[in-house]
Design goal:
6-stranded antiparallel sheet, 363 residues, DUF4190, DUF4190 domain-containing protein, 3 domains, 48% helix
Length: 363
């Protein structure tokens, strides 16, 4: 007998059973448990074939161990056989189809109803009443992204602080950060439909206080109608060549949209500074595209994009040094003309990205 690791003697083993005194009757043989299980399974029709298996195993054990329960095992096997035949006949005749369909629908409904607090990146869902109006929401219905849906989660972020910031402050953060999160989630902006807008859930004062809710959930939502198909286009769904191209071009787009509201005549310094940012962004995009080896059929069209960017860069460099509004306009217009909305369409086609160029903005 070995000792325990601590050096104490190991617990004693139980003593063997003491045999009955001479002449005393031995206790009656025990009833086999599997025989009982076979009978119960056969009576209540729980997985009908299981009763047959349990009964057969029980008969073997009864014979080998001298146990009781042979009649129970046989009865369970007979009942299970009858149940199995009835179920088989029901499926063959279609009698269980409606029942099975109903069970499946209930299961899908239960599985697809989620708390709004449990939404995760990539989830597609429907919101009660749609997403057009602002409302407090506790539950949403998750759906397959391939089916029509109201919104698709693009990511989340946490609000800081112990005191509730107030709705205006939260919305300001959400609008800025959700836009960036959604841009990273859908790198291929050309594939985002026109009816998709940035959408978010944020904590209410009650959820902040009662359940310590600090999460802002960002999403794309259908401004009109429904969205169909996932809008996700990031490293999780794209290959390295697609990601390299999109990141290079998106960096330029991010600067172009920051154009000052005032014209050069009234805000020359702001426009000149912005032109310098565009020229710098063009340099970065060119370097990224040149620094990545694009394969096969995509190599030449990407090289053509680089040539266009280099041409545009010259104009923006001159606009960034314009001493007056007239000089700025001279280089601004050809600089923009060198960056048409459909720039890189051939490269996109070769890389198997969306080739539906964005529409001209309307005033």
């Amino acid at each position: 007998m070995s000792s325990s690791p601590q050096g104490w003697p190991a617990p004693q083993q139980p003593y063997p059973p003491v045999p009955p005194p001479p002449g005393a009757p031995y206790p009656p043989a025990a009833t086999n448990g599997l025989a009982i299980a076979s009978l119960v399974t056969g009576i209540v029709c729980l997985v009908p074939p299981l009763g047959l298996v349990l009964g057969a195993v029980a008969l073997g054990q009864i014979k080998r161990k001298g146990q009781r329960g042979k009649g129970l095992a046989i009865s369970g096997m007979i009942l299970s056989l009858v149940s199995t035949l009835l179920v088989a006949a029901g499926f063959a005749l279609g009698g269980f189809k409606e029942f099975a369909d109903g069970v499946r629908e209930v299961k899908e409904d239960v599985a697809s109803t989620n708390s709004a607090f449990s939404l995760r990146t990539g989830d597609c869902f429907n919101q009660p009443g749609g997403t057009a109006d602002q409302q407090e929401v506790e539950t949403v219905k998750s759906v397959d992204c391939a089916k029509p849906h109201d919104a698709e989660v693009t990511g989340t972020f946490q609000l800081a602080g112990s005191a509730y910031p107030g709705v205006p402050a939260i919305e300001k953060q959400a609008e800025e950060r959700c836009l960036k999160i959604s841009d990273q989630y859908a790198l291929d902006s050309w594939a985002v439909p026109e009816n998709a807008v940035t959408f978010y859930y944020h904590p209410t004062e009650d959820s902040w206080r009662q359940i310590k809710d600090r999460t802002v959930t960002c999403a794309f939502a259908a401004e009109k109608g429904k969205l169909t198909g996932s809008l996700r286009a990031d490293a999780a769904t794209l290959d390295a060549d697609q990601v390299a191209y999109l990141k290079a071009m998106n960096a330029l787009d991010a600067v172009l949209v920051t154009e000052p509201e005032g014209d050069p005549e009234t805000a020359l310094d702001a426009n000149v500074t912005w032109a310098g940012s565009v020229e710098k962004a063009l340099g970065g995009s060119i370097a990224q595209l040149k620094g990545h080896t694009f394969p096969g059929a995509s190599a030449q069209p990407v090289a053509e994009v680089v040539k266009e960017l280099e041409k545009a860069r010259g104009h923006w460099a001159k606009a960034a040094k314009a001493p007056d509004a007239d000089t700025f306009w001279i280089h601004y217009e050809p600089g923009y003309d060198a960056l048409p909305l459909d720039l890189g369409k051939d490269a996109r086609a070769a890389l198997k990205l969306s080739t539906k160029a964005p529409a001209e903005p309307t005033d």
